[in-house]
Each structure stands twice: as structure tokens, then as C-alpha cells.
Amino acid sequence: MKVSQALRERRSVRAFLDRPVPPALLRELLQQAARAPSSGNLQPWRIHVLQGEALQRFIEHIAKRLASDPEPDPADYAVYPQPLQEPYRTSRFEVGEQMYALLGIGREDKPARLDWFARNFRFFEAPCALFFSVDRCMGPGQWADLGMYQQSLMLLLKEHGLDSCPQACWARYHRSVEAFLQLPAERMLHCAIAMGYADPEAPVNRLVSQRLRLETFCTFIE
């Protein structure tokens, strides 16, 4: 698979098959992705991998937290700017409506939308979950490095027939995640990536988010 094909076909998958990811392949791809660019070669990314029994223990851990206290933790960082201004607000709204249309869930059906959102906290039944963290002393440059690692990994996964879904929603309950992972106080949770083999029959996996035309975001100076 060419890089261009992996980039074109990568998307956020929200329904997975009950098929484990080969551990040796996962280790290989996690190592390969470390060739991602890193300013000053700091390589700030830190990763925790959950599969099998450990993944189930975590899902039970977070389910108890949500049942007893669904209120989010005080935020370590803002996933989106507040308030989210145009045109970004519309872009976020439209992709959400596109997804719910594929699921057959109308805007007025709030319980169904909440039930669907809750699937985030089961990693959409993916067989593998990756949590990414970074030292709190790191700044925007190192967060960019972390994002480049994540993109490199997701393209490598696609090359090997695997799919993924980056999940910023875990920042809402970062303290519960950090406690389970036993992260040191100087480490900050960034996000998770659910990964595995996509369910080809799931309607939600037909979602392809739109991208802006080049002229909208690129200026050529002559």
C-alpha cells in the first residue's frame, strides 16, 4: 500500500470485529511509528497498551466511575476552544449529523444519541486500546510531535489491514484513566486510540468526513 492510499483510506472506525490484534505485529508497528518527526529528537510520546483481560478490567473500572459519578474531571486541557467559533463549529456539527444519519438516529432522539456516545467508553468494542500521555513540562511543539506519532501509527495500521479511532473523549475522565494506568503525577493524559479490524457491515463505518478544498486553507505567494 502506498502512503497516499493509506492516507486516503484512513478514517475513524467506530465498529470493530471480535478479532484480536497479533501482539508481535502491534509491537512492530508501535516501534516503526517512532520514526515520526520529533523536534530535537525529544520523542515525548508515552503509550500504554490495553488488550484482553487488562482491557476488560479497564472497561469495568470506567463503567463504575460513570455509574457513580458521570461528571467530567476538571480539565487538564481544552479539547476544543471555548467557545468554538465559525467555521469550525459548523464543521464539527455537520460531521456529527452525518454520523447520526448513518445510524438512523434523529436529532430529537436524545437517549439514543447518549447511548451511542457511551460506546466511546467501551472503545467501540475494539480489541485493543492505546493511551497516549506526555510530560506536563512539554509544550505545544512536543504535542505536535505526539500528533505526528499518532498519525504515523494510524497510517501503518491501515497498511496492515487494521483500523483505528482516535478518542479525545477520555480527557473528560483523565483522573480515572491516570489512576488505572498508574501514571506519575508529572504525566498528562492526551487521548486514546481504539484499534482493531473494522466491521465491514457496520453502517457507521461508511462515514467519510469532508475535507476543505485546498484554496480554503492554503495560500500560494508568488
Q: Brief description of this entry?
A:
The protein has 222 residues and is of the alpha+beta class. The protein has helices spanning 3-9, 23-32, 52-68, 88-103, 110-118, 140-159, 174-181, 214-217, and strands at 46-51, 128-135, 163-167, 187-196.
Task: Give an account of the 3D structure.
It is a single chain. This protein has 222 residues and is of the alpha+beta class. The chain has a domain of 150 residues: NADH Oxidase (3-Layer(aba) Sandwich), CATH 3.40.109. Helices cover 41% and strands 13% of the residues. The protein is built from 8 helices and 4 strands. The longest helix is centred in the last third of the chain and has 20 residues. It is globular, with a radius of gyration of 18 Å. The two termini are 35 Å apart. The model has no long low-confidence stretch (mean pLDDT 96).
Shape: globular
Care to count the β-strands? 4
User: Approximately how much beta-strand content do the residues carry?
Assistant: 5-15%
Percent in helix: 40-55%
Radius of gyration: 18 Å
Described by strand count, sense and barrel closure, the largest sheet is: 4 strands, antiparallel
Structural class: alpha+beta
Q: Please work out how many helical segments DSSP would assign.
A: 8
| CATH architecture descriptor name of the domain at 3-70 and 123-204 | 3-Layer(aba) Sandwich
CATH topology type of the domain at 3-70 and 123-204? NADH Oxidase
CATH H-level superfamily title of the domain at 3-70 and 123-204: NADH Oxidase
The H-and-E topology, N to C, reads as HHEHHHEHEHEH
Low-confidence stretches: none
Report the average pLDDT across residues.
Answer: 96
Q: Look at the structure and give the CATH class of the domain at 3-70 and 123-204.
A: Alpha Beta
Largest beta sheet: what is the strand line-up? 1-2-4-3
Termini separation (Å)?
Answer: 35 Å
